[in-house]
Amino acid sequence: MKVKYSLTLLLSILLLNCSKDYREQQSLSETTETVYTLPIVVHIVHVGESVGIGYNLSKERIYDQINTLNNDFRKKEGTLGYNTHILGADAKIEFKLAKINPNGNPTEGITRVNFQDVTIDVENDWFFDDLPYYGYWNKQEYINIWVFPLDGVLGQSSVPYINIPGLENANPNGTTGILITTAYFGTTNTINNLNLGRTLTHEMGHFLGLEHLWGKTENANCMEFDDYCNDTPLVSRRTENCDNIQNSSCNGEFALTQNYMDYTSDACMNMFTKDQVARMQYVLKNSTVRSSLITSLAINRD
Ligand SMILES: [Zn+2]
């Protein structure tokens, strides 16, 4: 079998923690003014369609998705990623499609592969580790994003390797990147509530070290894990609508249902908090297979 096409990838995504311990390692209250720009390569996996048809997404759809990602991470005014919440923060991280490929040649930062042309020699137990068969550029220089026609999962991300609470068990040698199911990549005209490209924003949060708001274990009755970010109210479960639900947090505060690390509809989301931004900045600057992205020459840095 060449590919496990409709995998049930409901593995709980390995998640990450903010914590007091790592705060003590570095003053995180002052978010840097530097804006970091990270290179992306998008691997489009299709089933033989022409470009722009079906799973073989158009360039415009890809550009739209990268634009949404940047609007969200930069809390850009005039976009759906803007908010006026007292805790809302600009992550000071941006993303660009690569301009130089691993061979040193010009690229649009997009690869396309027909999944029927890919032979998987040795299947891994975890489908995510099969993704490099569909394209994999040097993980030190590029954020690999696979856009794959799957069922049963919206997206998934690898976990950064860094010795801070919540990330101790990450595998530094594992496949590094982000999987997004095609239907949820970019703005679409589907009728579902996951049609505005926020799945990638959420997964990029994981890629840079963020936890779900409820931590690793859902429905733990507030007894087990937090997300270890002090400014996100402790919650024990996801929310799936757009309302700020009073008392839905463990201490009676409003839950941050507009947060990208909840499971609310795309239309509700517009916020990373200050502590989440501090966590992502710390991971980006200090984690193996993240910090090298800051200086990667795969994009223009003039
Ligand atoms: Zn998640």
Question: How would you characterize this protein structure?
Answer:
- The protein has helices at about 20-25, 60-75, 200-205, 275-285, and strands spanning about 35-45, 95, 110-115, 145-150, 155, 180.
- With about 300 residues, it is mostly loops.
- It has a domain at about 20-205: Collagenase (Catalytic Domain).
- β1, α2 (about 60-75) and β2 form a beta-alpha-beta unit.
- The termini are far apart.
- Bound molecules: zinc ion (ZN).
- Zinc ion binds near residues 13, 202 and 206.
Distance between the ends: 46 Å
Secondary-structure element order, N to C: HEHEEEEEHH
Strand content: 5-15%
Radius of gyration: 18 Å
CATH-level-2 architecture of the domain at 20-207: 3-Layer(aba) Sandwich
Low-pLDDT ranges:
1-30
Would you report the number of β strands? 6
Helix fraction bin: 10-25%
Overall SS class: little secondary structure
Please give a handful of descriptors for the protein shown:
single chain; 302 residues; little secondary structure; Collagenase (Catalytic Domain); six-stranded mixed β-sheet; 4 helices; 11% strand; binds zinc ion
Secondary structure topology:
Layout: H1 20-25, E1 36-46, H2 59-73, E2 93-97, E3 110-114, E4 143-148, E5 155-157, E6 178-181, H3 198-207, H4 274-286
Parallel strand pairs: 1-2, 1-3, 1-4, 4-6
Antiparallel strand pairs: 5-6
